[in-house]
TrEMBL record, chain A:
Keyword Mitochondrion: yes
Database matches in Pfam families: NIPSNAP
One GO biological process term: mitophagy
Swiss-Prot/TrEMBL keywords: Autophagy, Mitochondrion, Transit peptide
Superkingdom assignment: Eukaryota
Organism: Xiphophorus maculatus
Main location: mitochondrion
Domain NIPSNAP residues, every copy: 228-325
Protein's recorded name: Nipsnap homolog 2
InterPro entries named in the record: Dimeric_a/b-barrel, NIPSNAP, NipSnap_domain
Protein task: Protein involved in mitophagy. Accumulates on the mitochondria surface in response to mitochondrial depolarization and acts as a 'eat me' signal by recruiting proteins involved in selective autophagy.
Family: Belongs to the NipSnap family.
Subcellular location, record wording: Mitochondrion matrix
UniProtKB/TrEMBL annotation, chain B:
One Pfam family this sequence matches: NIPSNAP
Organism listed in the record: Xiphophorus maculatus (Southern platyfish)
Family designation: Belongs to the NipSnap family.
Signal peptide: 1-24
InterPro entries registered for this protein in UniProt: Dimeric_a/b-barrel (IPR011008), NIPSNAP (IPR012577), NipSnap_domain (IPR051557)
Entry keyword Hydrolase: no
Protein name in UniProt: Nipsnap homolog 1 (C. elegans)
Amino acid sequence: MRQTVDALCVTLEMLFRLCRSGALSPPGGQRRSLSVFPKRKMATGVLQRIRGGFTPAKSRALSAGNLSLWVRGFSASNSRNREDSWFRSLFVRKVDPRKDAHSTLLTKNEESNLYKIQFHNVKPECLDDYNKLCEDVLPSIHADKYYPCELVGTWNTWYGEQDQAVHLWRYRGGYPALTEVMNKLRQNKEFTAYRKERGKMLLSRRNQLLLEFSFWNEPMPREGPNIYELRSYQLRPGTMIEWGNYWARAIRYRQRNREAVGGFFSQIGDLYMVHHLWAYKDLLSREATRNAVWQQEGWHEVVYYTVPLIQHMDSRIMIPTKASPLQ
Amino acid sequence: MLMFFFALLFASFISFLCRRFSESSDKGWFRSLFVHKVDARKDAHSNLLSKKETSNLYKIQFHNVKPECLDEYNNLEAEVQRRLHQDQDFPCEVVGSWNIWYGEQDQAVHLWRYRGGYPALTDCLQKLRVNKEYLEFRKERAKMLISRQNQLLLEFSFWNEPLPRKGPNLYELRTYNLKPGTMLEWGNRWARAIKHRQENNEAVGGFFSQIGDLYVVHHLWAYESLQSREETRNSAWQKEGWDVNVYYTGKTSPATIML
């Protein structure tokens, strides 16, 4: 008798899932499916409960709590990048369609800070000269009230892609401030000369315009000496909101040693990129801080849910140059 | 009883069909049902995957040298590395230093070991910052380089520790960019697989990145010649269990560099 119920459960489960796919398509909009790590224990737990109760499997499974467990229990391994398909969509967590732009949903609405990050690949033999040049020019633009921009930090990479300089600027006032600065600098003869000099020392450069996440701290000047870690994540398109949701909860786990400096997402340049900037006293304390976070309740869940959203990630350890407000 | 039997038969038939489908097509929808599940991680990679007894930190450097300067660069580096390696004052050792033969050419790869982890690394760095000779060397070297990148690595607990070897050998560095989240799974599979690759003393070291490009794994192998490399690798397929390892790990993107 019990065995018959088991068989019934298996068959009903498959039938049920087939029905569910039809019932749950959101009207209009795009259904996005995401692979997540399934919780095997939960799925088997539900199955056992159903068996034990001898109640009709279908009505039991219809309860909301079990619904999500059933779905999650059979979702795909995250280690493969797949296209959407109706059947696959049965077994993954559902994501609601986005209703607004990232810039409205994720960033601080009270202020309108725009950030620009620059990555300059410097010719190895010119690195010292480049640093000296930047030391002269960049702080002067920062201090001059005529230009509505501020230098947040300027670093040389130490580990990661070497001989690279990273500059982070803030434009209080958003795009109008950015355009204003650009127009003014165009007229500035000294700046044009600086750019010419600098051009001889560079191999290549790229930049991105970023907005800050609303739940992250605003990067404020710091006393040194610190080392900084810039973790850059290339997210799968469409997953920015989910990333934001998890990190909005996760960021409080990472405030122990004041290591959180700033979190940004890209608007122009490489898209769906997220940068997290961390400050540590040295590499050992970085290791200790990061390991200690795993002891906190809930952190492993954050990792579990956010890692599948990432396509590629890298980390660079950077040392601030003398001109950097973030030391 | 009969109904149960038929249901079981049906289910097993379906799963057999699906496994066949999953093997043939890369992006089939059925496949998602029948892949193995991965459990949530509970701790940092550095605690779960690397050797606990020692705290060796490895640094790998990739230097893209200007083609015309390669010989000069090699001489310069050899001299400096010899001194740093022998000097007890600097807590670092050169594990190996290579030029690329097949792969990205005119690239030099250096692997360093810091016994004592991050404190040793910081110690070494601070001492070198004030060493005038070293600064001179860096200036000289910078003229010969196009670009450089490095990564800090930890070794996998189940791999051998790279020890000095007599030559002549050629080395293969296989670098894998894993999909984020799959490091543990990789480690689990290779912990079992590594025993299949010990026949000719070919396994030198296996590392995963901690700083620099993340979710990168390096496997370092040593062979006498390209021919013996071919033979060794082919014979691995004769062993029971090797194909399973490749099946489950093969969805990453390997890049073969030969040194």
